[in-house]
Amino acid sequence: MFHIIICNWQAAIFNFQSMLAVLLLMICTCAYVRALAPSLLDKNKTGFLGIFWKFARIGERLSPYVAVCCIAMGISVLFF
Asked: Is there a smaller number of Cβ atoms within 10 Å at the N or the C end of the chain?
C-alpha cells in the first residue's frame, strides 16, 4: 500500500505536461497581477519572491509566444 502511494506521488511530480501547465499558469498570473498592481511585484526583484517578478517579465516580453503555448496546452488538455 505504501509503495503504491509513493509511486503515484512521484508520477505526479515528474509529469511533464502538468509541469508545463503550472509554469504557463504562473507566467500568465504574474503578468496579470503586474499589469493590475505593478508595485506589488516590482518591490521584490531579488530573492525568493523575485521569481514571480521574473515570471511577469517573461509574460510581458514574450506574450505572443506565451499565448500560443496557452492555446496549445488548452487544446492538448481537452483533446489528448
From this structure: N
Distance CA 48, CA 66 (A): 23
The pTM (predicted TM-score) of the whole model is 0.77
Which pLDDT score, from 0 to 100, does residue 80 have? 81
Query: Could you give the CA distance from residue 16 to residue 34 in angstroms, rounded to a whole number?
Result: 27
Report H helices in 1-80: 2-13, 16-36, 38-42, 50-61, 63-79
For residue 44, CA distances in Å to 19, 24, 28, 33, 58 come to 24, 21, 18, 13, 16
CA angle 35, 39, 41 (to 5 degrees): 75
